[in-house]
Amino acid sequence: MVVQHPLIEFDCSMDSLEPAVIMGLLKKNDSLQEEALKIHVSYIADECAKRFKPRGVYKLFNPTICTLPPTYTEPAIKLVGTMMVFKGKTVYDRLKRATHCALLSVTLDSETVIDTLREQLCYNDFDSHIFDACCAMMLERAADMISAEIIRVAREKTLYTDERLCPGEGDLPLNTRDQILFYTQAEKRLGIHLTSESEPVPRLSLFGVIGMYDKTQKGRRRACGRCKYRDYCSIRAVGMNCHGDKGSFK
Ligand code: SF4
Fold first, then answer.
1. What pTM was computed for the model?
2. Ligand 1 contacts CB of residue 152 (under 6 A)
3. What is the CATH number of the domain that holds 228?
4. Is residue 133 part of a domain?
5. pLDDT at position 49, please?
6. In this structure, which long-range contacts are made by residues 29-35, counting pairs with CB atoms below 8 Å and at least 24 apart in sequence?
7. Which ligand 1 atom is nearest residue 240's CA?
8. Is the CB of 160 under 6 A from ligand 1?
9. Which residues pair with 64 in a beta bridge?
């Protein structure tokens, strides 16, 4: 029997963005002193954090290897109970031993909200660079937030996880976004749609998949020290981890 997992909506709002990280993303601007730049960046970052309401949605599926030539002549992974097929070696290598995977879609906010705030905050190209850096960082953080939540859910099921894989990485085709959008209902839930070239509208949207593995795949260890989800990790916050140190996973 195919188990149907629920679709989960997730609020990725955040209180603040660290100006130091955004400044690291900007090209040096000699016309502004370091302190003045920090104040300027902080102002735009604070407004972005206050005004944007990033949201995401995820759903668990059970992947399986496609084994029906001649239909599937390349390595491919199918999601049980759906028409979704992942193509390419990158995703095949990630998911061929996974028992579950999570599809996720995230968006920063609507184009209207983003454009309105841009108009209010940006008076020159440099302001626009700062604004773009803040938007990109917020989207990435929202995706990290939902990824941390997926890892928490996996751990509850005593499953190990891998890094988030997004369309466009390795040989995973960009048009995989179309299927992730469909199976996470991201159009209805988040208001995202895709152009004929699979470009998202709102542009600041992101799609991905995270593999989940049973304890036979314990070798896929993560490390808290270099984990990009650690700021949002509720597992580590209670003194545990997701990567199975002795005693953590039975
Ligand atoms: S911070 Fe550690 S426990 Fe948390 S998701 Fe990352 S690797 Fe896992």
1. 0.90
2. no
3. 3.40.109.40
4. yes
5. 95
6. 29/126
7. 3
8. no
9. 78
- Cα–ligand 1 centroid distance for 240 (angstroms): 9
- Record the tokens describing residue 143, joined without a space: 């995706």
User: Is 124 inside any structural domain?
Assistant: yes
Q: Region 64-92: what's the mean pLDDT?
A: 85
Q: Is the CB of 233 under 6 A from ligand 1?
A: yes
**Does the beta carbon of 87 sit less than 6 angstroms from any atom of ligand 1?**
no
Domain that holds residue 158: 7-238
| Structure letter (DSSP) for residue 77 | E
101-138 residue pLDDT tens = 999 999 999 999 999 999 999 999 888 989 999 999 99
Cα–Cα distance measured from residue 176 to residue 38, given in angstroms and rounded to the nearest whole number: 39
* 250 domain-assigned: no
Length of the chain: 250
The two structure tokens encoding residue 62 = 């059970």
Q: How far is the CA of 231 from the centre of ligand 1 (A)?
A: 9
Tokens 């309401």 — which residue?
Answer: 53
- Specify whether the CB–CB gap between 20 and 41 falls below 8 A: no
Q: How many domains would you assign to the chain?
A: 1
Distance CA 149, CA 141 (A): 12
- Please report whether residue 249 resides in a domain: no
Shortest-distance Cα residue to atom 8 of ligand 1: 242
Report d(CA 139, CA 109) in Å as an integer.
9
10 CA to centre of ligand 1 in angstroms: 19
Question: Does 249 sit in the ligand 1 pocket, CB within 6 Å?
Answer: no
Q: Which of 11-15, 54-58, 185-189, 236-240 has the lowest mean pLDDT?
A: 236-240
**Mean pLDDT value across residues 205-211:** 97
21 touches ligand 1 (CB under 6 Å) = no
Distances (CA, A) of 155 to 53, 151, 162, 169: 27, 6, 12, 25
